[in-house]
Amino acid sequence: MKKTDIGLIGLAVMGENLALNIESRDFSIAVYNRTTSKVDQLLAGRAKGKNFVGCHSLEELVDNLVLPRKVMLMVKAGPAVDEFIEKLIPLLSPGDVIIDGGNTLFSDTERRTKYVESKGLLYIGTGVSGGEEGALHGPSIMPGGSEKAWPLVKPIFQAISAKVGPKGDIPCCDWVGPRGAGHYVKMVHNGIEYGDMQLICEAYWMLKHALGLGNDELYDVFNHWYQGELNSYLIEITRDIFSVKDPDTDNYLVDMILDTAGAKGTGKWMSQLALDLGVPSTLVTEAVYARCLSAMKDARVRAGKILKGPSGKYTGDKKTFTEQIRQALYASKICSYAQGYVQIFDA
Questions:
Q1: Which of 55, 185, 254, 322 could be stapled to 60 by a disulfide with Cβ–Cβ 3.0 to 4.6 Å?
Q2: From 38, 70, 186, 333, the catalytic residue
Q3: pTM, two decimal places
């Protein structure tokens, strides 16, 4: 039987979508999941008739890969990555590549790169950005680690990544650097995204509460912004949520969502490292604090009964104020990106 181009471990939504993306670019792929029923479900469902090989063991996965083998981990960051590395090392040959595509702390990738290389293998830690849809249709990919591994994965990674440029042919993927560089850049990328989301939330708050705009009006404002300098995925999905209604109540979904936010840790990592480096990544850090405050829902409700605060209503020209908010959001985003680049260059 013909060997496959790459193996992928971990068939949660991100892993499954990335596997389908890889296969759609004319690469063959072998897949494995610890709960092997997930493998069977994928091959009987979304991957049916496609160039997939389903495997029920790591040995079977490795046996189905062309040399040098490339095995990508799409598992939860932390101990699970180390466990799979330990299981894979005895099964692989010198020159084979292990790839971690999770949201891993860059210092863990530095440690793992050194360890895996000491065993004669190559290691890549890569950020994969774009969420579930990006994984399926084209993510931004930020690989770093063993430089000799880059030519081995470059054709696959650049084929499956998002494309930009006037002709739409420039891949959103290139080699970032040695050791943990890929996951470092992904950490900063996520931190900047924390800032972007907080800025959008604050713009929304002013439009809704200071100007009193309804959801239809908010949709129109964000749609207008999306056509110009603020064009981005986050602005697009913010616009779209204003039109979604709950099918059971016919109320706007955005008004039913609890105003609390969780976090996976990458924004916090960036802020902690900024303090260590003496880099003023102030916007991202404030966005992390805002998430911490949002999680204190019960305390905020109790405090709100004691201190109501000002009404915050704006009585001037709505169109002028809306444009001022747009300009402030744009300027703030530039500051956020600038702070992120400074932290990358000062690392």
A1: 55
A2: 186
A3: 0.89
